[in-house]
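Lecture 7 notes: from sequence to structure.
We start with the chain below.
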Amino acid sequence: MQRKIITTADGSKTIHIVDWNEQYHSKHGAIQEAYHVFIKHGLALFENEKLGILEIGFGTGLNALITLLEAQKLALEIQYTGIEKFPVSTEEVGQLNYITELRASNYEQQFLKMHHSEWGQSTSISNQFTILKRQMDFLEITDENVFNLIYFDAFGARVQPELWTEAIFEKMFNALMRNGVLVTYSAKGSVRRAMQAVGFEVERLPGPPGKREMLRAVKK
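Predicted structure tokens for the same chain:
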């Protein structure tokens, strides 16, 4: 599939998949979307604790990077697991401008370490942040009662509807500990109903720029 780096509305870059007319992040602002969905309505619910995070769609590493940055402010110790079937290339990583746009030059080596770390091997990125990248299909996830928070950042249902089904969300529900939270940019009614069908309590929240709403689900 043809892929190219594009600049989104807030100046941050993302990867555009030409064949699907789909981006890794919102064209209205990659960094803005990541902060709004995954930090404001996800990570910010936690403070002063050890946290297990599962990211569905590690992709460019943007969500992992901003989580590393915010973990310092929230005094969180994070075990971060990123699932990705088709890893981003080293060349593509080199064209992303997240470090510049986030004014995070002190974290450049840590961001690169995230990408260069071995798949399937837990790697310490800082005293507060350890990452484990797993190269696998989302349907292969079998974790149970492991995570406090899930960033559900798969490609949209328009191009990959199989990733937004009851079968997938049942795996997410099982992977979370009690009172665990899942956040996603999607607000489709079919997605909300699939979440509810497997036991999640779901709420609609104001969406990031370019989207009216998003969803947050809790395992009670």
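Points to note: The chain has a mean pLDDT of 97. The first strand starts at residue 3 and ends at 7.
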